[in-house]
Amino acid sequence: MNGPRDERDELAAQVRELNVSFEETALRTFLPPLLDVDLTIQQMKVLTVLVTTDAGTTGAKLATMFGVSMASMSKLLDRLEDRGMVRRTEDELDARAKRITATELGRAAMRSLVVSRPEFRDDILLQLDVEDLRSLLRGMTAVARTMAARSAISDP
């Protein structure tokens, strides 16, 4: 007997299969920007941390997080700052420390590298008929709502 749970499981499996297809397509589009970016792996890791933290963090915390000396982290941050990817400002909690945040340029660089979703570009979306586009929007809105609710639960 097939019930709503069986249908939900089957539909979820189909969505996961489609997502794998999307990810494989995204990998092909990921290579050119990766080859064009002039960042080291360590710089990309630090920038990813900064992009995912709205309030930023300190150089000392980054150094600890990455297991490097403060001097090494400072040099890495200097290079990112010279390229306009990060900004250093006075830390409101500790005037001796500098708060490091990603700039819009740094955020855009990481978006193009890490979260590029070719399936949602205009050249794809604008080829969908309006009813399919409405359904996609409704489904994505439901997923976003569920993710936001889960995020709110896990935030301290």
Task: Write up what this structure looks like.
This protein is mainly alpha-helical and 156 residues long. Helices cover 67% and strands 8% of the residues. It contains seven helices and three strands, in the order ααβααββααα. A three-stranded antiparallel sheet has the order 1-3-2. Strand 2 and strand 3 form a beta hairpin. Helix 3 packs across helix 4. The longest helix is centred in the first third of the chain and has 33 residues. It is elongated and about 60 Å long. The mean pLDDT is 86.
Short key terms for the protein model shown above:
about 160 residues; mainly alpha; 3-stranded antiparallel beta sheet
Number of helices: 7
Q: Which strand-content bin applies to the residues?
A: 5-15%
Q: What strand line-up does the widest sheet have?
A: 1-3-2
**Largest sheet geometry:** 3 strands, antiparallel
Determine the structural class based on helices, strands and strand pairing: mainly alpha
Number of strands: 3
Unreliable residue runs: none
- Oligomeric state: single chain
Based on CA atoms alone, the radius of gyration comes out at: 20 Å
Mean pLDDT: 86
Distance between the termini: 43 Å
Principal-axis shape equals elongated
SSE string, helix = H, strand = E? Answer: HHEHHEEHHH
State the helicity in percent bands. 55-70%
